[in-house]
Specification:
By secondary structure, the protein is of the alpha/beta class. It is about 50% helix and about 10% strand. Bound molecules: ligand LJ27NJHV and NADPH dihydro-nicotinamide-adenine-dinucleotide phosphate. The site of NADPH dihydro-nicotinamide-adenine-dinucleotide phosphate (NDP) has 28 residues, from helix 2 and strand 8. Catalyzes the reduction of fatty acyl-CoA to fatty alcohols.
Length: about 500
């Protein structure tokens, strides 16, 4: 049997961010591989009108948990959802719940965070730094705690080109920053944010870097490890290929491409996009939890969960595979036919943004207005281009992450553990993976039925014909204007006509 799976049996595990992308996959894997675990405590807040119970119910009844439900129909009995809002003092956890957590927890997986790039700094610090600090304090009062695994991001030090498995100094001491966020006025914080974050691209990355410093400085005698994933994407293998339920990261760009909103990719041919499948991240987190608890390394280890060093995914190759998959299985109700221009030239980029993005959106909204419908494409286009400009940073540069600890961890695992908790990305076939990723976005996120593919293809054919007609009309108008104004154009026209005896 797998030693890692056996380790988690009979354990009480606390997960923050269990309702998020990574948290759900982590929980699913734990239930599938260690069905005899004692309990999983999850810190949840009510959201979108759903109570805690309803949120847990919808997760357990989702497709992601279909395998778990088969082997373990009463899985709900092993989840203890505890009300907690990590942005509040004491997280708002009741006294009884806190006592139970403190006395029973064996392992903590801290996945919760705000992952929006440009949240106000005060909120990003509150959630990604202060909440981490409070959780560490809670952890220090847990007599049975064996390991604390903190989820950070491989980009927390993206101001460097080569990133080692260490916590780097961050501009601003966390304590001072936390203090300043408490008493400074929101308007002043907004003004000084660019100065504070320095050469990090946004408040998210900066707050995650500060969070790491807090973990290092305030972890005390706890057994801690930090896992730093790069760009987390859909599942590779488990529980099935292509599962994804959010638009973060590349998902949004792929959807925008499939819907014909985005027709531009500003990358060089050899740019590497450091994707890492979410099930691989979950496996590494669980393996790190086991190693930290059982082997108790003397220093806090940092594990990079990245792909670029071992099996790089080239952006252009990926984009072509996205297009090939969209050709076979198009998304429904596209605004335009999917197509992409690759350019790294700034002027060309602006030109294509105007000509093949903004102008068609304005024309389409005009048409919607004329036909008595609500215009919406310009708004959608602006949102897409805005998101694209924020994500572009992460595909326009190259980073190298050391993976010594990750490789060491793999070498410490038995062949059975390496199979069950596989995070060896060398085995990953990117073309197959990207195809599943696109299909997963269509199925699980857009909720589009495969039966709708013929209609979607028909729709794209109509768009192609409209495009031909539109281009022909524009060409004829331009040509007519040219002939009216230029003798040379008239001569060329007569010459062509004489060739064809017109
Ligand atoms: C042949 C060629 C083929 C071409 C094919 C091309 C295919 C594409 C291939 C692409 C390959 C390259 C992919 C590379 C992608 C790089 C990804 C980089 C990811 C970096 C990872 C860094 C490490 C991390 O830890 S990140 C953690 C993950 N976090 C995120 O990804 C967050 C990203 N999103 C945001 O921060 C924000 O949403 C932002 C900045 C994009 C926009 O913020 P803003 O405040 O302006 O708007 P919002 O209030 O957030 O939203 C307004 C509106 O939009 C809805 N919405 C929110 N988020 C998204 C989203 N991600 N996508 C779509 N829509 C979104 C939101 O609900 C709001 O809707 P309303 O209706 O207005 O309420
Ligand atoms: N996605 C990615 O590409 C990457 C993510 N990471 C890191 O991985 C971790 C998980 O990210 P991911 O799963 O993608 O993020 P999600 O946004 O999907 O999940 C975030 C989780 O945090 C919870 N949370 C946020 N605010 C609060 C709050 N105030 N109180 C209680 N819970 C809260 C959310 O709960 P709720 O459902 O209630 O909102 C949700 O469960 C993060 O630490 C992130 O920094 C690192 C690298 C890349």
């Amino acid at each position: 049997m797998s030693a890692i799976a056996a380790y988690y049996n009979d354990k009480s595990i606390l997960i923050t961010g269990a309702t998020g992308f990574v948290g759900k996959v982590l929980m699913e894997k734990l239930f599938r591989t260690s069905p005899d675990l004692k309990v999983i405590y999850i810190l949840v807040r009510p959201k979108s009108g759903q109570t805690l119970k309803q949120r847990v119910f919808s997760i357990l009844n989702s497709e992601l948990f279909s395998k778990v439900r088969e082997i373990y129909p009463n899985v709900g009995e092993k989840i203890r959802a505890i009300y907690a809002d990590l942005s509040k003092d004491d997280f708002g956890i009741s006294k009884e719940d806190m006592e139970e957590l403190l006395s029973c927890t064996n392992i903590i997986f801290h996945c919760a965070a705000t992952v929006r790039f440009e949240d106000p700094l005060k909120y990003a610090v509150q959630l990604n730094v202060v909440a981490t600090q409070k959780l560490l304090l809670m952890a220090s009062q847990m007599p049975k705690l064996e390991a604390f695994i903190h989820l950070s991001t491989a980009f927390s030090n993206c101001n460097l080109k080569h990133i080692d498995e260490v916590v780097y100094p961050c501009p601003g001491e966390p304590k001072k920053i936390i203090n300043a966020m408490e008493w400074l006025d929101d308007a002043i914080i907004k003004e000084i944010t660019p100065k504070l974050i320095g050469d990090r691209p946004n408040t998210y990355i900066y707050s995650k870097a500060l969070g790491e410093t807090v973990v290092q400085e305030e972890g005390g005698k706890l057994n801690i490890a930090i896992v730093r994933p790069s760009i987390i994407s859909s599942t590779w293998q488990e529980p099935f290929p292509g599962w994804i339920d959010n638009v973060n990261g590349p998902g949004e760009l792929i959807i925008a491409t499939g819907k014909g909103l985005l027709q531009l990719l500003t990358v060089g041919p050899m740019t590497v996009v450091d994707l890492i499948p979410v099930d691989t991240v979950a496996n590494l987190i669980l393996a790190a939890g086991w190693y930290t608890a059982v082997h108790r390394p003397k220093t806090m280890l940092i594990y990079h969960s990245t792909s670029g060093q071992l099996n790089p995914c080239y952006c252009k190759k990926m984009a072509l595979q996205v297009m090939a998959t969209l050709e076979k299985t198009p998304f429904e109700k596209a605004f335009r036919r999917p197509c992409t221009v690759f350019t790294t030239n700034t002027i060309a980029k602006q030109f294509w943004k105007a000509v093949s993005h903004r102008i068609p959106a304005i024309i389409y909204d005009f048409y919607l207005r004329l036909t008595g419908r609500k215009p919406r494409i310009v708004k959608l286009m602006n949102r897409t281009l805005n998101a694209f400009s924020k994500l572009e940073y992460f595909i326009s540069q190259h980073w190298e992450w050391s993976i010594n600890n990750t490789e060491m961890l793999m070498s410490q695992m038995s062949p059975e553990d390496q199979r069950v908790f596989n995070f060896d990305v060398r085995q990953l076939n990117w073309l197959q993976y990207i195809e599943n990723y696109v299909l997963g976005l269509k199925k699980h996120l857009l909720k589009e039925d495969m039966a709708g593919i013929p209609e979607a293809k028909q729709h794209l054919r109509r768009l192609r014909n409209i495009n031909y007609i539109f281009n022909t009309v524009i060409f004829l108008i331009a040509w007519r204007l040219l002939i009216a104004r230029s003798q040379m154009a008239r001569n060329v026209w007569f010459f062509i006509c004489s060739l064809y005896n017109l």
